[in-house]
Design brief:
There is one protein chain. The chain has 5 helices and no strands. By secondary structure, the protein is mostly helical. The longest helix is centred in the middle third of the chain and has 16 residues.
Amino acid sequence: MSAAPVHGHQPIARTQDAVAAALPPAQRMEFYREMGEADDETIGGVLRRWWLRAQLYRDPEGDRIHTAVQAGTAPGTPASAVLRRLGAL
């Protein structure tokens, strides 16, 4: 399975080097710090979280989407509401 390009961009490889290169310089040091502190059980989650952030930074609509999510105005249903409905919370 392959990821679809975001607005014509090729997807970012899920490697430490590719994620670091895709991040803005201000975020890169924090990424390296978290990767350096991660152990064998958490490093995959750290890489995955930063990969998702890198995808968002790369998306020209990323700022607008992030603002809408933070403001609660993004389309869709929050995961917490879905989980409550399913009785998982």
